[in-house]
């Protein structure tokens, strides 16, 4: 192994081992760039999470709490010892979390398929929250492996902002944890992450400045360093407006006050630019001002890199507003004569879902926030400056600092030439947390990491082959399915297919026995690590793929064919859903065998194996055709969302009506007909002599089945508030939702909101 580039080593650990990784690096070493490149190319099924909403939006991921459905507050790995330390304090345990954990089928499938969990901005991640994540993964995946068998990539700089823990919380957490930092989570004590540090600094080029920053990180500040910083001290410094300084301060209130007073000092007219918010985008996650107030002459800062090829600005670049119109903002950046007419930028709020055709985890946009990518920039908090780059900055440190804040503030600058300190630094204020120093000693030399990744890759590939050719989990699933046929044939549309299911199980069990023999071959062949030995292993793997996959494909086809027969009966949505889920497992096993062979071949040929390579292995068009056939129900077009929305109820035949009796019309259908004629809820109630709540309940049924949109029944803003309340409270019960929203919301409206929530859920 000759790799000496830490970024390349990190990529190899991620793509070709199962080890957890902590990827760190000084400010400006390209951690964000690494993450963006990784998510584009990794062959593993991956999701990105972050501790806060804004961090999640910036990382193009989701928040930890939303993905794992975790309540806010303290998590304890078990009940604390009795005593005063937890008297009257709120906390969660594995029992309280799993008791209320209600995951829909899509999220559960994401967790079952997940191979790589990426946690960004890990300096803010608390140890107890990481243990809660691991507990949920083990619980859902029914696995006692570390994180339920999911590999975790931690990205962040521990010398930046630490996790926030109140003293009352630490009274509880101190019973279980050495510190609040993620690396002291119990989940990592037996499986510590590989420590990899990106070292090439792209932001600064001045060796004196780089040395100072390194000493700040390493608790090695010298008297020479202190003297150097003191030379940039300017008491009561007030910059000229043309100097384009930005002030970095510790508190939001102070930064907001400086920006507000500076804007008011300008004599020009104020212009207001309102953002456009579509669908789901919580206010706490807004990445820019909801209403941006500007004046000509205002100092602003870009909060995104220029997406155009010209790259006229970067995140943190300072500019001055030169012209304003109703739909136009023109700015000029420092040292450039040309002006820039800004275009709005759209940030996306996503959730993870599963592609119905490929079974791959994908992003689904659920909300958008569109605004000009600038903000007032006479001042900004140090916390919000993370990830930004400035040419000139006034650092107002005020009183005491949390460990890492001085480093964060100074490391935003390209060079010391642009630094002004408005207060002197106390030596005690710039010491880093000793827990971080202790953890950083785990960092290994690049050469040792190179040997480690080679050994870990061999271990990973062997286990990956074994897992992909292991048909036991699939066999167990089909076994459970066969034993779910328990009803009398005369009363169940499902029961008539029992013999077919038994035949499928018999065929799969026979195939599993052959697969078990091949797994023994893998173990034997893997002992010969020579080129000839590996060539023989590849030859046998290809032969095994050619033997097993056609049979797995045929079983998938049998399930699709059976679904066509099932569709001829009524009230079979729940059964069709079972068959769809089972077929997806057969397809996933087929995919994994294809991928295992291709990964083995790429590894032997020392080639990269990427997401694109996985896509090339699959015939997506044929599978899409098969799925579309399933969703085309007789006399009714059924889509996948509808299948998911309907509950798994008992599937029973309707009793035959007497021949001399007219067929009974469902009362809900009558309500639907009147609604489609344009009648309001009140008008339908009057026409049918029903109370309004009954009419609303009827219509809610058709909202859940996606036959009518909820927006046609109630105000869109009101509907969104109901859905947000359901998600926030994590309940489908009417009374708690009503208490939360207030009496302006009727129970009928809440029922419609619940139906819309079910229709949205996958």
From TrEMBL:
<keyword id="KW-0347">Helicase</keyword>
<keyword id="KW-0378">Hydrolase</keyword>
<feature type="compositionally biased region" description="Basic and acidic residues">
    <location>
        <begin position="654"/>
        <end position="665"/>
    </location>
</feature>
<feature type="region of interest" description="Disordered">
    <location>
        <begin position="644"/>
        <end position="665"/>
    </location>
</feature>
<feature type="domain" description="AAA+ ATPase">
    <location>
        <begin position="17"/>
        <end position="324"/>
    </location>
</feature>
<dbReference type="InterPro" id="IPR029491">
    <property type="entry name" value="Helicase_HTH"/>
</dbReference>
<keyword id="KW-0547">Nucleotide-binding</keyword>
<dbReference type="InterPro" id="IPR027417">
    <property type="entry name" value="P-loop_NTPase"/>
</dbReference>
<dbReference type="GO" id="GO:0006281">
    <property type="term" value="P:DNA repair"/>
</dbReference>
<dbReference type="Pfam" id="PF05970">
    <property type="entry name" value="PIF1"/>
</dbReference>
<protein>
    <submittedName>
        <fullName>Helicase</fullName>
    </submittedName>
</protein>
<dbReference type="Pfam" id="PF14493">
    <property type="entry name" value="HTH_40"/>
</dbReference>
<dbReference type="InterPro" id="IPR051055">
    <property type="entry name" value="PIF1_helicase"/>
</dbReference>
<dbReference type="GO" id="GO:0003678">
    <property type="term" value="F:DNA helicase activity"/>
</dbReference>
<dbReference type="GO" id="GO:0000723">
    <property type="term" value="P:telomere maintenance"/>
</dbReference>
<dbReference type="InterPro" id="IPR010285">
    <property type="entry name" value="DNA_helicase_pif1-like_DEAD"/>
</dbReference>
<dbReference type="InterPro" id="IPR003593">
    <property type="entry name" value="AAA+_ATPase"/>
</dbReference>
<keyword id="KW-0067">ATP-binding</keyword>
């Amino acid at each position: 192994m000759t790799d000496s580039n830490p970024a390349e080593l990190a990529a190899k650990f991620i793509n070709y081992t199962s080890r957890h990784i902590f990827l760190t690096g000084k400010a400006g070493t390209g951690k964000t760039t690494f993450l963006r490149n990784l998510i584009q190319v990794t062959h593993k099924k991956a999701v990105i999470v972050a501790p806060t909403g804004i961090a999640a939006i910036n990382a193009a991921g989701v928040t930890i709490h939303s993905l794992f459905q975790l309540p806010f507050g303290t998590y304890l790995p078990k009940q604390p010892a009795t005593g005063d330390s937890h008297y009257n304090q709120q906390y969660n345990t594995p029992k309280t979390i799993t008791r209320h954990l209600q995951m829909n089928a899509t999220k559960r499938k994401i967790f079952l398929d997940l191979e790589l969990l990426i946690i960004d901005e890990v300096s803010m991640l608390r140890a107890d929250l990481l243990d809660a994540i691991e507990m949920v993964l083990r619980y859902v995946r029914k696995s006692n492996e570390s994180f339920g068998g999911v590999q975790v990539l931690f990205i962040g700089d521990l010398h930046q902002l630490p996790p926030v823990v109140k003293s009352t919380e630490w009274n509880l957490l101190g019973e279980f944890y050495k510190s609040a930092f993620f690396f002291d989570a119990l989940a990592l004590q037996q499986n510590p992450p590989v420590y990899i540090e990106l070292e090439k600094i792209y932001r600064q080029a001045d060796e004196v400045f780089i040395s100072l920053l390194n000493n700040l990180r390493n608790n090695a500040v010298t008297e020479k360093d202190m003297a150097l910083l003191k030379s940039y001290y300017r008491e009561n410094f007030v910059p000229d407006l043309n100097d384009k300084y930005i002030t970095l301060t510790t508190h939001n209130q102070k930064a907001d006050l400086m920006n507000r007073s500076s804007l008011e000092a300008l004599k020009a007219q104020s212009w207001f630019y309102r953002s456009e918010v579509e669908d789901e985008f919580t206010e706490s996650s807004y990445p820019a001002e909801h209403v941006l107030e500007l004046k000509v002459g205002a100092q602003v800062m870009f909060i995104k890199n220029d997406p155009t090829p010209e790259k006229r600005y970067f995140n943190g670049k300072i500019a001055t507003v030169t012209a304003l119109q109703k739909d136009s903002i023109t700015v000029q950046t420092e040292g450039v004569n040309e002006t820039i007419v800004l275009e709005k930028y759209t940030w996306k709020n996503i959730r993870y879902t599963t592609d119905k055709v490929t079974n791959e985890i994908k992003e689904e946009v659920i909300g958008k926030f569109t605004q000009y990518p600038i903000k007032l920039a006479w001042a900004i908090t140090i916390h919000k400056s993370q990830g930004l780059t400035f040419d000139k900055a006034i650092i107002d440190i005020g009183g005491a600092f949390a460990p890492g804040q001085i480093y964060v503030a100074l490391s935003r600058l390209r060079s010391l030439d642009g630094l002004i300190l408005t207060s002197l630094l106390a030596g005690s204020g710039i010491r880093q947390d000793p827990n971080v120093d202790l953890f950083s000693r785990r960092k290994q030399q690049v050469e040792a990491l190179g040997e480690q990744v080679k050994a870990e890759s061999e271990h990973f590939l062997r286990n990956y082959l074994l897992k992909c050719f292991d048909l036991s989990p699939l066999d167990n699933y089909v076994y459970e399915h066969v034993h779910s046929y328990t009803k009398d044939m005369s009363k169940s549309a499902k029961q008539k297919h029992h013999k077919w299911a038994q035949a499928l199980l018999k065929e799969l069990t026979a195939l599993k026995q052959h697969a078990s023999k091949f797994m023994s071959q893998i173990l034997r062949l893997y002992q010969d690590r020579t080129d000839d030995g590996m060539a023989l292993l590849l030859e046998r793997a290809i032969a095994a793929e050619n033997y097993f996959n056609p049979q797995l494909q045929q079983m998938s086809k049998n399930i699709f064919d059976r679904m066509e027969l099932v569709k001829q009966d009524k009230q079979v949505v729940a059964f069709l859903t079972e068959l769809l889920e089972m077929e997806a497992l057969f397809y996933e096993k087929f995919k994994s065998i294809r991928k295992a062979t291709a990964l083995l071949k790429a590894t032997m040929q020392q080639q990269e194996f990427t997401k694109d390579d996985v896509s090339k292995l699959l015939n997506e068009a044929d599978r899409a055709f098969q799925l579309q056939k399933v969703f085309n129900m007789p006399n009714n077009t059924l889509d996948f969302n509808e299948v998911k929305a309907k509950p798994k109820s008992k599937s029973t035949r309707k009793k035959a009506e007497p021949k001399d009796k007219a067929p009974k019309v469902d009362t809900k259908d009558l309500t639907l007909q009147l609604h489609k004629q344009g009648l309001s809820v009140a008008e339908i109630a009057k026409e049918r002599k029903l109370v309004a709540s009954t009419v609303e309940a009827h219509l809610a049924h058709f909202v859940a089945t996606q036959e009518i949109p909820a927006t046609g029944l109630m105000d869109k803003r009101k509907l969104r508030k109901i859905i947000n309340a359901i998600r926030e409270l994590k309940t489908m019960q009417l009374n708690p939702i009503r208490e939360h929203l207030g009496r302006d919301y009727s129970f009928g409206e809440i029922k419609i909101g619940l139906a819309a929530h079910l229709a949205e859920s996958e």
